Every structure is written in C-alpha cells, then in structure tokens.
Amino acid sequence: MADDPSRDTRRETKISNGPNARPRDETIAQTGPGLPNDSSAPVEIDEEEARRIEDRIRAS
C-alpha cells in the first residue's frame, strides 16, 4: 500500500482550509495506535483515589 500513487494524490488534494483541514486517513487525538500526538502531561492520581475509583467501578 505504501507504493499506491492514488494515496499520495489524495493527500495532496485539500477539501478544506479551515479547522477540519487534516488528512482524511489520519487519526484524531489519541484514538490511533503508536505514540500520542499531543503534548499533554500524564494524569497523576494517588493510590487512595485509584482505590476509590476501582471500588466504584467494581460495585456497578
């Protein structure tokens, strides 16, 4: 698939120049595999909070 010329052409053709002007076949935020594509800091949670969340989830 890497040698498919129609794929390259499709990437060069833009359908928008607004906020949605991203390639059609790219993932949004962290919905795809691989490294995250944002620079947000990891969420930090203490052990007590993690235990309360786990207890609440398992009780459902």
UniProtKB/TrEMBL annotation:
Residues 1-14, 49-60 have a biased composition (Basic and acidic residues). Residues 1-60 are annotated as: Disordered. This is Uncharacterized protein. It comes from Methylobacterium terrae.
